Amino acid sequence: MKKVYIEPGCITCGACEFVAPEVFQVTDVSHVNPQAELKKNEEVIKEAARMCPVNVIKYEE
Ligand code: SF4
């Protein structure tokens, strides 16, 4: 996985941080931790993207 980002529209539900706490931190909106190991967290990132109720978690493989 090369890149993870959040498009505008996050409703701060917290699901992504719950599923992948090393990658997502939800404050005012969800943020991707720039230090996160994307390869190691690939499965949970995909899971978070599937779970996001507004589909704003995007990734490039
Ligand atoms: S799962 Fe989606 S809506 Fe919920 S906090 Fe994460 S990015 Fe925002």
What is the strand and helix layout of this fold?
Blueprint: E1 3-6, H1 15-19, E2 24-26, E3 30-32, H2 42-51, E4 57-60
Antiparallel strand pairs: 1-4, 2-3
Bound molecules: iron/sulfur cluster.
The site of iron/sulfur cluster has 16 residues, from helix 1 and strand 2.
Notable features of this structure?
61 residues; alpha+beta; Alpha-Beta Plaits; two-stranded antiparallel ribbon; two-stranded antiparallel sheet; 2 helices; binds iron/sulfur cluster
Which percent range fits the helix content?
10-25%
CATH architectural name: 2-Layer Sandwich
Approximate shape: globular
Radius of gyration: 10 Å
Strand content: 15-25%
Please give the CATH class: Alpha Beta
Which small compounds were modeled alongside the protein?
iron/sulfur cluster
User: Spans with pLDDT under 50 lasting ≥5 residues?
Assistant: none
Distance, first to last CA:
4 Å
How many distinct folded domains? Answer: 1
N to C succession of SSEs: EHEEHE
Count of DSSP strands = 4
- The structure class reads alpha+beta
Major sheet characteristics: 2 strands, antiparallel
Return the CATH topology: Alpha-Beta Plaits
Query: Taking all residues together, what is the mean pLDDT?
Result: 98
